[in-house]
Design goal:
alpha/beta; Rossmann fold; eight-stranded mixed sheet; 8 strands; globular
Length: 323
């Protein structure tokens, strides 16, 4: 018997009906997916006045972490330092690269004149435990330390990510709070992957779809990431829902769909930020499945979700003059 659950937005349902969907991830399926072409970043840059710079920075263990910096062209950041969006891509911790979902932060480059930096953290199962979030944190430290060179206002650095990248953004924000550096102005968590336990009502409702990410696939991703870590050995910055204390976090934006696996863990995370005295804005988009706005950006609910995020960032990053 199928569990009662919120249905899909009618427009999204029709679009999804034409897409072949997988319901399971296995090592063999993952190997195949990793052979598919990377996200087509060149086409996204073709009509944008953007300068691109590819660099590598050292991880804590000395491995090279690739970063790409996108800077609005024709802007003199020596005069006015820009906000920065530090982007962590999705892919269930096991796939994707730094250009996955890059169209989302590039919209903020257009709207806010933001410098966008995106990081290629190492993927599970080859990299397990704290490695992916530590890679992201080391990249963020480099950005903050080179803010003048990059034309970035160090007081307006935003960490952002979708799905696994949203979970990594939450973990990086916890690390930065606990270590006292760098300063983060805001975090944007888009359908974030926050809780390895998979015990929520929404995870059971969408154990087998519909959508592009199911409970079964989520369990595969977490198994790959956690490796030998179990129980009390799992750090909160790896599975942020485990954090006992959500005080002292920067302004937070969380959105999710009502028809997706991560709905309840995302809503709970926002509620716990409020309970700790923090500020969070939460949107649950009716009928949205996981990744709906990235997969179908022109659907009405997707366009609204993306515009609402940009509006929030604009409000959050615009300096306010004293009354």
């Amino acid at each position: 018997m199928t569990m009662a659950r919120p249905g899909l937005d009618p427009e999204l349902r029709d679009l999804l009906a034409d897409m072949p969907l997988m319901t399971q991830l296995t090592p063999e399926v993952l190997a195949h997916l990793r052979q598919l072409p990377s996200a087509p970043v060149d086409s996204l840059l073709a009509d944008r006045p953007v300068n691109r710079r590819d660099i590598t920075v050292p991880a804590g263990d000395g491995a090279a972490i690739p970063l790409t910096v996108f800077t609005p062209a024709h802007t003199d950041h020596r005069v006015t330092a820009a906000p920065c969006v530090y982007w962590m891509h999705g892919g269930g911790m096991v796939m994707g690269d730094r250009f996955s979902q890059i169209d989302i932060p590039l919209e903020w480059l257009d709207a806010l004149g933001a410098v966008v930096v995106t990081v290629d953290y190492r993927l599970a199962p080859e990299a397990t435990g704290t490695t992916p979030v530590d890679d992201c944190y080391q990249g963020l430290l480099w950005v903050a330390e080179h803010s003048a060179e990059l034309g970035i206002d160090p007081a307006r650095i935003v960490v952002a990510g979708a799905s696994a990248g949203g979970g990594l953004a939450a973990g990086v924000t916890l690390l930065a709070r606990d270590r006292g550096t760098p300063a983060i102005a805001a975090q944007v968590l888009i359908g974030p992957m926050l809780d390895h336990r998979n015990t929520s009502a929404s995870s059971r409702q969408y154990a087998h779809g519909p959508g592009i990410w199911t409970r079964d696939m989520n369990e595969f991703g977490w198994r790959c990431l956690l490796g030998d870590l179990t129980g009390d050995r799992i750090p909160a910055h790896v599975s942020p829902a485990l954090a006992d204390d959500l005080s002292g976090l920067p302004a937070t934006y969380i959105d999710t769909g009502s028809a997706e696996v991560f709905r309840d863990e995302d809503v709970d995370y926002a509620g716990r930020i409020w309970a700790a005295g923090g500020q969070a804005e939460l949107h649950v988009w009716a009928g949205g499945f996981h990744g709906f706005d990235a997969l179908y950006p022109k659907a009405r609910v997707s366009a609204t979700a993306r515009r609402t995020r940009t509006d929030w960032l604009t409000r959050t990053l615009t300096p306010h003059s004293a009354a």
